[in-house]
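Batch job 17 of 40 flagged for manual review because the log was empty.
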Amino acid sequence: MALKNKYKITCKENTVKEYSLIKNQIDRADNEGLELDKLYIYPILKAKPKDLDDDEDRIIYQSRIQDTINPEGVRAIMQALYDTAFPSLREIRIWKVDCRNEGARMVAKFLSKNKTVSLCDMMGNAITQLGCEFFGKMLAPSIKPIWDASKLQYKNNYLKTLKLDHNPIGAGGLAELARGLCSNGTLTVNYIL
């Protein structure tokens, strides 16, 4: 219930509407008395017409998005998760919603605090080198104090898989991820052009 209320508040703060897919996932978990352990965010297509005959009709149909989310919408749900220190989430899959670097920043911010998510899949979101910098910093350890290696603390060593397929991260983005990965032995990164 706390997540549902916080999500409503962060949507108002970010001046975005509540994304129906997220709202339905939270409501279903609340109604069934379950913990939300997987968060899926993707574009919802309108109902498929029955009279699709040729390829041109199929292309037109596929371009009709019924409900989608923008970077501010991703910020709203991730801020709600961050603020409630949501304990049961195990997977985050944000597919093809064009959340860009701002969305990546908020996901990385949430993951830097989270100790339960083991898979984060950000396929096709126009994430560039800057977004990879956010993920790299989230993965890198911080040393306190710097002279004592026994005090090495990872911002996130619970994440096992980070997927960034179909994002234009380029060589610079790979370098940013490598900075975080070189000292974090728990994670595998998947990247397909």
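Reviewer: the log was empty due to a logging misconfiguration, but the result itself is present. The helical segments are 2-13, 20-31, 55-62, 71-84, 100-113, 129-139, 170-181. Unflagging and moving on to job 18.
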